[in-house]
């Protein structure tokens, strides 16, 4: 049984409640619903496989980004944009407790919203080269894992459990 109030509690072999529920731009945690917990646990199992496949620690950047954050504490010191127009949108999103909108996502059906996606970086010597290299290693396992992966150039890897519309390796 997982104690979701203990941020150090393991949700899988390698991952913790903190990594799955922390909202870094708000410096707080989301209290996931039962459905979100189930999604997080299912994805954590797949991330454990990926972690062992690539044989490197994984740094989680973003797991859940709810549109209705369930908080047990107040939001203090949110990280706002310096851009005035973006800040206005962020203030509205904060009032609505819409973390997905606060961080600038316009996706209405992002798998992150319900804990079905994660952005991560394998911890290695050169992040962008590491991500490119490890995307190639993960790619042949996507179908077996029931995952999709973004085909992007960047310093992170995005995997999710959304249904495949056209391809498992896709352009966002």
For this entry, give a set of tags.
two-stranded antiparallel ribbon, alpha+beta, 5-stranded mixed β-sheet, 7 strands, Muramoyl-pentapeptide Carboxypeptidase, domain 2, 172 residues, 34% helix, single chain
Give the helix/strand layout.
Elements lengths: L16 H5 E2 L4 E2 L4 H21 L3 E5 L21 H13 L2 H4 L14 E6 L4 H12 L3 H4 L2 E3 L6 E4 L8 E2 L2
Parallel strand pairs: 5-7
Antiparallel strand pairs: 1-2, 3-4, 4-6, 5-6
Describe this structure in words.
The structure is a single chain. With 172 residues, the chain is α+β, with helices and mostly antiparallel strands. The chain has a single domain, classed as Muramoyl-pentapeptide Carboxypeptidase, domain 2, CATH 3.30.1380.10. The chain is built from 6 helices and 7 strands. The protein has helices spanning 17-21, 34-54, 84-96, 99-102, 127-138, 142-145, and strands at residues 22-23, 28-29, 58-62, 117-122, 148-150, 157-160, 169-170. The strands form 2 sheets. It has a 5-stranded mixed β-sheet with strand order 3-4-6-5-7. The protein has a two-stranded antiparallel sheet with strand order 1-2. A hairpin with a 4-residue loop joins β1 and β2. It is globular.
């Amino acid at each position: 049984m997982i104690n979701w109030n203990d941020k150090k509690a393991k949700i899988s072999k390698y991952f913790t409640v903190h990594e799955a529920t922390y909202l870094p731009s708000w410096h707080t945690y989301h209290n996931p619903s039962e459905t979100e917990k189930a999604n997080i646990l299912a994805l954590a199992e797949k991330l454990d496989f990926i972690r062992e496949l690539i044989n490197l620690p994984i740094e989680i950047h973003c797991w859940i980004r709810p549109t209705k954050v369930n908080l047990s504490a107040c939001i203090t010191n949110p990280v706002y944009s310096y851009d005035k127009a973006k800040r206005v949108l962020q203030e509205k999103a904060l009032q609505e407790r819409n973390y997905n909108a606060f961080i600038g996502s316009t996706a209405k059906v992002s798998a992150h919203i319900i804990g079905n996606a994660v952005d991560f970086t394998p911890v290695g010597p050169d992040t962008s080269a590491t991500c490119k290299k490890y995307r190639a290693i993960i790619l042949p396992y996507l179908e077996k894992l029931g995952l999709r992966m973004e085909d992007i150039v960047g310093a992170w890897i995005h995997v999710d459990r959304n249904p495949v519309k056209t391809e498992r390796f896709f352009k966002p």
